[in-house]
Amino acid sequence: MELGLAGKRALVTGSTAGIGFALAKGLAAEGADVVLTGRKQDTVEAALRRLKDTVPEAKVTGIAADCATAAGAETVFAQVPELDVLVNNLGIYGRKAAFEITDDEWQHLFETNALLPGPTHTETTDKLRAERAKSQGITLTEIEAAFFRDFRPTSLIRRFTTADEVAALGVYLCSEAASGTSGAAMRVDGGVVNQIM
Q1: Per-residue pLDDT reduced to its tens digit, 25-43
Q2: Torsions phi, psi for 61 (to 5 deg)
Q3: Of 99, 93, 81, nearest to 120 (Cα)?
């Protein structure tokens, strides 16, 4: 499928690791000129090297700035005044009974979360699971099996999604092919979310 992203300028915030990095990699593979951001120069440089190793033809640059602050956002805007694609790699989550969530909280969730990933393998989540497995004296495979047996029995795939699987939907949503897809929070959860989103 031709996604129409070649030559587009794309900014992906928080993109030195995890889902943000996978999104940047997917956009670069489609021919977009990608700008990565991260809070530290060394992590930005490491991400640039990883991306170029994975997608040798990638047109990618990086900016060290904390996009969650006004000063960081100004740094990015000064260096990237015009874009075709913005991926605000920000997501929020909180556990609360559906009927206890106020209208303002619902609106905030819908405005913030463009994608709704379920349990996903990323560097951070894998590290947390490894620590939990070690503390319980079991393997990572056992941790994952127990998680889906005890906490996500509705999962259709019965495993954690990969950052690349989440990014595939994000890249599609950035493309011309998704011009008719709007006004919705899209789930990439393997069938596990058992609440209204």
Answers
A1: 999 999 999 999 999 999 9
A2: -130, 170
A3: 93
SS3 content of the chain, % helix, strand, coil (to 5): 45, 15, 40
**With b meaning 16 or more CB within 10 Å and e meaning fewer, what string describes 84-106?**
ebebebeeeeeeeeeeeeeeeee
Range 143-148, long-range pairs (CB < 8 A, 24+ positions): 147/119, 148/192
Coil, helix or strand for 79? helix
Q: What is the dihedral of CA 135, 137, 138, 144, to 10 degrees?
A: -10
Q: Give all domains of the chain, ordered by start, each with its CATH number.
A: 9-117+160-188 (3.40.50.720)
Rounded distance, CA 163 to CA 180, Å? 25
Give residue 186's pLDDT band: very low, low, confident or very high (50, 70, 90). confident
